[in-house]
Write a structure and sequence with these properties.
Blueprint lengths: L1 H19 L18 H5 L3 H17 L7 H7 L8 E5 L7 H4 L7 E5 L7 H13 L4 E7 L3 H7 L7 H9 L2 H7 L9 H22 L1 H8 L4 E7 L6 E3 L1
Parallel strand pairs: 1-2, 1-3, 3-4
Antiparallel strand pairs: 4-5
Helix pairs in contact: 7-8, 9-10
Length: about 240
Amino acid sequence: MTLSFLTLLIISIGFFGVMFAGTPSDPENDDDDEDLLTDERRANMNPAEVLQAFKNGNKRFVEGNLRRRKFVKEVSATKEKQTPYAIVHSCIDSRVPVETIFDARIGELFSTRLAGNVINSDVLGGMEFATSLSGAKLIFVMGHTRCGAVKGAADSAEFGHLTGLVNKIKVAEKSAKKSFNGKADPNDYAYVDHLAKEYVKLAIEQIREESPVLRELEQSGKLLIAGGLYNIGNGKVDFF
């Protein structure tokens, strides 16, 4: 009786060992090299396709279906050069990890971050470098819900250098109050989120107006300047 039980146990262990050997859980057999961003792949993508890649990546993030990562391989593959296809300008908020939100690998995105995702000349310089000199085909300005900087703008906050920063966002108040369906109450996050969205739209126009380099790239079809609002409650990006 005991011998039969041991024999059955050994057979079962062998069976399951064979069944699970070489499955996708084995990192040596999980090769996603065909997804790595190369010069050739980027060259064959147009700006609209890059934006669609962002939408697909965010969908995977929301669904909990992120691509299997091999960080050591990604580091090794980018040690000599980088081939980013986009630059994202977002807020410094700790809940907005850009590369994770879009399921991007090392070397795929340029990223600039300022509180309230405000635009200034330094940010524009980075965008010009990322696109005109380094080949990125998408500029994506991303605000987020329940943004402290935007709330500060709605509250007319005054505190050190923060005063000047929130004043850059306050310029969107006029359009936000006009288009908001309800009372523009700074204590109402529905309004604050609406203001955040309006500022992203204004920031996009500011990029076009203040950078002839970027404006000409977009007019030629080599670049797309777009924006969105990230929902910190559910992980979704509202693209607009």
